[in-house]
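Feature request, filed as a ticket because there's no other form

It would be nice if the structure record came with a short human-readable summary line next to the C-alpha cells. Right now we just get the raw output. Example of a typical job, pasted below so the devs can see what we mean:
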Amino acid sequence: MLTHIIAHRGASGYAPENTMAAFRLAEKMGADGVETDVQLTKDGVPVLIHDENVRRTTNGTGFVQDYTFDELRKLDTGSWFSSEFTGLQIPSLEELLQWIIDRPLFLHLELKTDVIPYTHIEKKVYTLLRNYHMLERTCMSSFNENTLAVIKDLNPSVRTAFLTSTNMRKLIPFVSSIPADDLHIKHTLLSRKLVQRGNKNRVEMRVYTVNKPALIRKCFQLSCAGIFTDVPDIALSIRKAQERST
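Raw output as currently delivered:
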C-alpha cells in the first residue's frame, strides 16, 4: 500500500502556511495532495487559515469571524515567515479550488468548528466542492463529530475523517459510529495495533504532523494511508529510497 504524502498547510516548512505559495511549492515538490484549514469570514466566505485569530500568521489582530473577506485580504500573511513572502494574502477556498481543479492532487480540508461553530460552514464548503467537481478528490475532516454528521447528511458518499490527538478507548468503533470513513491521528498515538485495527474495519489512517525522518519511515513501514508533513520533499525522498530497497 502506497502511503500518500500530503503537504500540511502546503509545503509549510518552506513557505507561509495555508498560502498559495505553499500549495504551489507542494505541487512542485511532487506531493500527492495538500491539506488546509477552513474558517468563515464575517460575510460567510470560506477562507484558508489555521488559527481562529489572525495574530500569529498576519500583521493583523482579532478573529477571522470579525473580518469581512475584503478586510481580511488587506492583511499580509507572508512577512511573518520571511520578507521574501511579504504581501501574500489569505486565500479563499474558491481560489484554491480554481487552482487545484486541473492538477492531480488530492485535497484534505479541515473544517475548524471545534472552537467556533461557524454557521453553515459545512454547506458552504460542500457547495463549492460540488460546483468545482472536487467531491471525489476531497476528504473533509474535523475534531467536531457533529460537523462530520452534517457533511454526511448533505451527501453520504463524501469522504470524511475524524481528527484526534486523544488516546480514546475503542477509537476505531467510535469512528465507525459517528460515522466517519477515515481517522486522522496525532503522531503520538501511532501504533501497529491501531493501524491493524483500522485496516480490519476499513478505516483509513493518516498521521499528523510527520516531519522527522524516523517517524516518516515508521509510517511507511506500517502502511498508513497517508502522512501530513511540512516537508513533503524529505518524505518523498525517503519513500523513493524505501521503494528502491524492496
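Something like this underneath would help us a lot:
DSSP finds nine helices and nine strands in the chain.
The chain has one domain: 4-245.
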